[in-house]
Amino acid sequence: MAEKRMRRRRPQFNIREAVHHWLTCDDAEKRFAEERGKHREVILEVLAAEGEENQQGHRFIWWPEDPVDGRIKGIKREKRVSKVLNPERAEKILKDLGLWQQCIVKVIEIDEAAILGFAYDTPAVPAKISADKLKEMYDISETYAFVPQRIKA
To answer: In what side-by-side order are the strands of the sheet with 74-77?
Structure first.
């Protein structure tokens, strides 16, 4: 006697409903981001004006006995310092000190425009780089983006 097999049916998927839910979340995320940004600015202003400053320049406000929502015992405005070499000022100082030649390096860079110029025929000069060789020079990657097509108001 043949055994009966039950086929599993794939449940119906409503793509329109999924797009609706995505859109609702996307809209909410934008609203929340705006609201979060407004609160963040106010908090940073209060920290700058009223926060207790430590030796590193960070400012704190603490509530150890009464954490906010039972999770936050304090907030910090953290000072972050970046140091970036200013090429124009550095060049002037190094030249004044006679150290310019010892403090520079020459960097070889491939001129992509020149490569492309050699890869295509012109009325005066035939291509010197074949399409296959040109293709071989490049790494190609593909990605896909979800792009909702919105109605313009």
So the answer is: 52-53, 59-62, 74-77
- Beta-carbon contacts of residue 103 (< 8 Å; ≥ 6 apart): 90, 94
pLDDT of residue 8 exceeding 90, the answer is: no
Query: Over the stretch 64-75, which tens digit does the pLDDT of each residue have?
Result: 999 999 999 999
Condensed to tens digits (0 to 9), the pLDDT of residues 60-107 reads 999 999 999 999 999 999 999 999 999 999 999 999 999 999 999 999
pLDDT tens across 106-141, in order? Answer: 999 999 999 999 999 888 888 999 999 999 999 999
Q: How many CA atoms lie within 13 A of 95 on its CB side?
A: 6
Residue 7, in any domain of the structure: no
Number of domains in the chain: 2
Q: Token pair of 88, please? A: 């124009």
Provide the domain limits for residue 38: 15-77
